[in-house]
Amino acid sequence: MISDKTVARLSVYRRVLLDMQDAGQAHVFSHELAARSGCTAAQVRRDVMATGYTGSPVRGYDVTALAGSISEFLFHSEAQKVALVGIGNLGRALMAFSPRRNPRIPLVAAFDNDPAKVNRVIHGCRCYPVQQLEEVVESEGIRVGILAVPSAAAQDTARRLCRAGVVGLLNFAPTHVWVPPHVYIENLDLSMALEKVAFFAGLRAPQKEISL
Amino acid sequence: MISDKTVARLSVYRRVLLDMQDAGQAHVFSHELAARSGCTAAQVRRDVMATGYTGSPVRGYDVTALAGSISEFLFHSEAQKVALVGIGNLGRALMAFSPRRNPRIPLVAAFDNDPAKVNRVIHGCRCYPVQQLEEVVESEGIRVGILAVPSAAAQDTARRLCRAGVVGLLNFAPTHVWVPPHVYIENLDLSMALEKVAFFAGLRAPQKEISL
DNA sequence: TTCACGCTGTGATTCGTTTCACAAAGACTA
DNA sequence: TAGTCTTTGTGAAACGAATCACAGCGTGAA
Ligand SMILES: NC(=O)c1ccc[n+]([C@@H]2O[C@H](COP(=O)([O-])OP(=O)(O)OC[C@H]3O[C@@H](n4cnc5c(N)ncnc54)[C@H](O)[C@@H]3O)[C@@H](O)[C@H]2O)c1
Ligand SMILES: NC(=O)c1ccc[n+]([C@@H]2O[C@H](COP(=O)([O-])OP(=O)(O)OC[C@H]3O[C@@H](n4cnc5c(N)ncnc54)[C@H](O)[C@@H]3O)[C@@H](O)[C@H]2O)c1
Question: Kindly report the CA angle at B186 between A93 and A81, in degrees rounded to 5?
Fold first, then answer.
């Protein structure tokens, strides 16, 4: 019913609105929010419709009220606890970033199969041996998982997470991961994204410089 | 003419095909490639059309030949050199990953405004003070940039990169960045992706466990 | 009080992508 | 040789999302 892409844009609008709130701005028009979010005014209005909030044709949207409405829409349920699997280069960067993130989506546990990396606390997040995955996910009621393990381990890790009750996955491994139909999975394939950028960069500057 | 999404999927097919090649598989059918790539057989056939390669109705596609055709299609131009700006947590993870990546898209320079992080070589990549950005990008002929700086610095960094000749950008900062129309930009907003996953996870398991 | 203005909310439309469905073709069988 | 089987390549149809376009409305000006 509600589209993937609308949810993504609402998340962007929310961040922009919070920035505006910090800057003391009280009202905003759809075209202004659109410009700051990289989309069109019509799209903003359509997306805002989904949250049920209604603006005023004269003042536009109330910044605080709209931010609140989007927050309520996006984070309606109780806080969604997150588990990270794979405390490697990428996993550690994600952990370092997590305190700056949305407190409604807290990172509460991390797992690794390397004994040297576990049984400590990094940026407020407990690190466990991967053997305890099911136990911790179940006891903490974790519903969201982040896969930052090598490709070869991704499918099996996903299977374990889903069995333990995870229903949303963010996958950084550059491989397709099968999950049960009730689980939502989002793939963030950085290599693929870079290849895409390189491809279009090649199209846009195809001729060598006249370099003589 | 060629769609964004087709390029993305071709990149995935290519990786799957290289894995098959390593495993000694000589031929593959569209439905098989589709299953391993997370899409449909019809989509595979459509996408393959774009590269100009033609399979056999009996044997399917020749793994090596198709991988080659996709590679040629995606990486037709000379190697696309890449510059990274922002040697923080995320930047360092990307540098650590780069040797494992496509050699047609080499990471050749990194920049930071923190003097403590520059004037050394990390994973084979030279780190420069950000003041030398224009000079290095121009002299090396770099056409692709990765933004791993804080949001506040993203727009200005993008502007400098584009002025220096970059025509493709990969942006990790959670902010909208304006670029000239001839520049291709791809945003990888990890926070947004996680909020999306959390949202759909909340929808799929909305009720608290009957936990008594 | 009337009018003009600019913006929101939304039905209708357009656009791009995915999926369907089938003709064409090689290989194997008898 | 004729027939069957499986898969490709691709027009055509279906689908979903973005965009258009405008009615409706509150405001401020005259
Ligand atoms: N680092 C990057 O910038 C980057 C970029 C693109 C994609 N990726 C992908 O992200 C994933 C992680 O990348 P990375 O650079 O952090 O790799 P890494 O090798 O630094 O870290 C992987 C971690 O996973 C752990 N691990 C391995 N098998 C495991 C298992 N079965 N269970 C639990 N933990 C296990 C390892 O001990 C290690 O700590 C990889 O799939 C990689 O392809 C990373
Ligand atoms: N770390 C993550 O997992 C993560 C996740 C999501 C998004 N991001 C985004 O990626 C970006 C980088 O994240 P990070 O965790 O690496 O942050 P970080 O603070 O660890 O690193 C930022 C780096 O950029 C450098 N820098 C700051 N201003 C600069 C400038 N004007 N020119 C050049 N260099 C400059 C800093 O010296 C620092 O080394 C941020 O925008 C962040 O929001 C990071």
Answer: 40
- Give the separation between CA A128 and CA A110, rounded to whole angstroms: 6
pLDDT category of residue A61 using cuts at 50, 70 and 90 = very high
Tokens of A150: 């090598």
A98/A101 Cα distance (integer angstroms): 5
CB A148 within 8 A of CB A86: yes
Distance CA B87, CA B85 (A): 7
Query: Where do you find CATH 3.40.50.720 in chain A?
Result: 82-193
- Nearest-neighbour CA in chain A from B187: distance (Å): 9
**Fold topology of A4-74:** Arc Repressor Mutant, subunit A (1.10.10)
Cα gap A166→A144, rounded to integer Å: 5
CA distance readout (Å), A211 to A32, A58, A80 = 43, 56, 55
Chain C bases near protein CB atoms (7 A cut-off): 6-11, 16-21, 24-27
C16 C1': nearest CA residue = B3
Give dist(CA B20, CA B35) in Å, integer.
13
Ligand 2 first shell, C-beta below 6 A: A 93-94, 96-97; B 85-91, 111-114, 117, 130, 148-151, 153, 157, 172-174, 190-191
Determine the topology of domain A82-193 in CATH: Rossmann fold (3.40.50)
Report CB contact under 8 Å: A201, B143.
Answer: yes
From residue B195, give the alpha-carbon distance in Å to each of A71, A180, B63. Answer: 11, 20, 38
Name, in order, each residue with C-beta under 8 angstroms of B47's C-beta and a sequence gap of 6 or more: B6, B9, B10, B13
What does the pLDDT average to over A117-136? 97
Measure in Å the smallest separation between the Cα of A197 and chain B Cα atoms: 5
Nearest one of A161, A117, A172 to A138, comparing CA atoms: A161
Per-residue pLDDT band at B101 (split at 50, 70, 90): confident
Whole-angstrom distance, CA of residue A82 vs CA of residue A168: 9
Percentage of chain B lying above the pLDDT 90 cut = 92
Q: What pTM did the predictor assign?
A: 0.95
At A56, phi and psi to the nearest 5?
Answer: -105, 135
